[in-house]
Amino acid sequence: MKLSRPVSWFLLAFGVWSWFIWITFVKNLWQDGSGLAFDDAGDPTGYFWVHLLLAITSFLLGTGVGAVGFRGVRALRGELAGETSGEASAESSDQSRNEPGDEHVVQRQ
Questions:
Q1: What is the C-alpha separation between 67 and 59, in angstroms, rounded?
Q2: Do 73 and 9 contact (CB within 8 A), yes or no?
Q3: What is the C-alpha to C-alpha distance for residues 93 and 106, in angstroms, rounded to an integer?
Q4: By the 8 A CB rule, do 6 and 72 touch?
Q5: How far, CA to CA in Å, does 76 sit from each of 81, 87, 88?
Q6: 99: phi then psi, degrees, rounded to nearest 5
Q7: What's the whole-number mean pLDDT along residues 91-109?
Q8: Rounded to the nearest 10 degrees, what angle do helices 46-96 and 5-30 cross at?
Q9: pLDDT tens across 82-91, in order?
Q10: pLDDT digits over 5-41, tens only?
Q11: Are residues 69 and 11 in contact, defined by beta-carbon separation less than 8 angstroms?
Q12: Does this model's pTM top 0.70?
């Protein structure tokens, strides 16, 4: 399957955004002083475990989505580089077909 440039960049940006958001959330969860994440004895509550599981799942999904986007961007750059080198080799092969003394003329088909 081939991804377009905007879709590839969107997926890559989503993966980066997911990591940024959830790292911030886990930091805030760990330092929670409201009593939701930790009880009076300092033990983690159900709220803590559910949200930690949510964060881990989001890290994994963000990583997968970002990796697909990264591979799409890298493949598009490889195609662009291949097209550029293909044009250069086509020009050099066109120039090799010129008659002697016609170096300044480039024939295109």
A1: 12
A2: yes
A3: 10
A4: no
A5: 9, 17, 19
A6: -70, 155
A7: 53
A8: 150
A9: 766 655 555 5
A10: 999 999 999 999 999 999 999 999 999 888 899 998 9
A11: yes
A12: no
